[in-house]
Design goal:
Length: about 140
């Protein structure tokens, strides 16, 4: 599905679907995507956002992403875990360069961290890291 992303001037969350928002920081050079549900529609919208960002990101600019998955209603069911892993692995196959930070709640179980680490391992052009707080993720993406 093709979706319309907001302008990179959008600094307040723009709703893509009921449980997926996007906004930009760092003068529009960093996309911040928040996933708030494990519903199929939300997982579909999240994947659509990432695919659209990969297609539409400005040529010559490094891809900079922060994925926020700390919402209390986001429960990592097997379906959600698989879909999130599949979506994150899209970044492993892109020819673009950049950084992608995933922020999960510190209370999230370690098995989820292992699943996510497996999904982001092997990235050639987009460095990916897992964080337990947003400020550290933002600082790393901006480096």
């Amino acid at each position: 599905m093709s979706i319309q992303l907001p302008s990179t001037d959008t600094t307040t969350p723009y709703t893509i679907s009921k449980s997926v928002t996007i906004h930009f920081i760092g003068d529009g050079k960093i996309a911040v995507v928040q996933l708030e549900s494990n519903a199929k529609a939300a997982l579909d919208a999240y994947e659509d956002v990432i695919q659209t960002l990969l297609r539409q990101w400005r040529l010559g600019e490094p891809l900079r992403l922060i994925h926020i998955m700390t919402h209390r209603e986001l429960i990592f069911t097997p379906l959600a875990r698989d879909r999130i892993s599949e979506t994150l692995s899209l970044l492993n196959r892109t020819t673009r360069i950049g950084r992608s930070a995933l922020v999960i709640d510190g209370n999230t179980t370690r098995w989820l961290a292992a699943v996510v680490q497996n999904a982001i391992r092997g990235a050639k052009n987009v460095q990916q890291r897992l964080f337990f707080n947003y400020p550290e993720a933002e600082n790393w993406v901006q480096e």
